[in-house]
What does this fold into?
Amino acid sequence: MKFADADSDFDSARFIIFGAPIDVSGSHRPGCGLAPETIRAESFNFETYLYDLEVDLIQSSICDHGDFDTPSEIEKAARKIASAGKFPMAMGGEHSITPSIISGFDPEGLSVLVFDAHLDFRDSYEYDKNSHACATRRISEIIGVENVVPIGIRSICSEELEDARKAGLTYLTVDAFRENELSVLLTYLDGLLSDKIYISLDMDAIDPSFAPGVGTPEPFGLSPLMVRDIIRHFADRLVGFDVVEVCPPVDNGNTSALAAKLMRDVIGCVSKNTD
Ligand SMILES: [Mn+2]
It folds into this structure.
């Protein structure tokens, strides 16, 4: 099965969707390797026309490039897509796919905005440096800690907090979004991020009442509409996107549907802002 409206071939497409069904970190709830198929299935639930963006996805050239299930294949796919000037959109799998994708990009001038409940700044977790609990740390080693900004954070261990302070990592907790106007935070993020922004969306950044089907749910999260609006704000600077950590065995379908909807919204807002 292909993602809905992904009717173009690789060469003619601008948006290249692929699955990265990696599920090896032994997470709290295993099963996120099944997510690319359920997100594809749910993508058919939605209208091709995005009325508020006035974009019809039938006119956006989209290719579904299939699945890549090892870190080196994922990196190779991301490099092929990015170096062709196309827009990669990956469906995890767990969050450890993101460092592989970022490795495929030219790191020069690249910023990464991470939506996540968890800081993911451990050097290793259960003796595994490639654990999903280390994703932001690995990204920071590739592009520099000053170029990665995690937001929606509400779960940090004391050891990674100390490391993050030492390294100078900037992040926004979920309370920052309650205590400040969104426009103020977006202006702040504008100052931190470059004009080439990759967004990684760990679905557990969103509150479990909206996105219960994730590997490691964490209460008190962001709303889906706020996540959508933040992504739309950066649409004219986006160079790639992934959505990770959807866990179909504990989902009623709505978390996959939300992931599919946000992917379609990314295609819509990027199409609209750069046409
Ligand atoms: Mn997370």
Observations:
- DSSP finds nine helices and ten strands in the chain.
- The chain has one domain: 15-274.
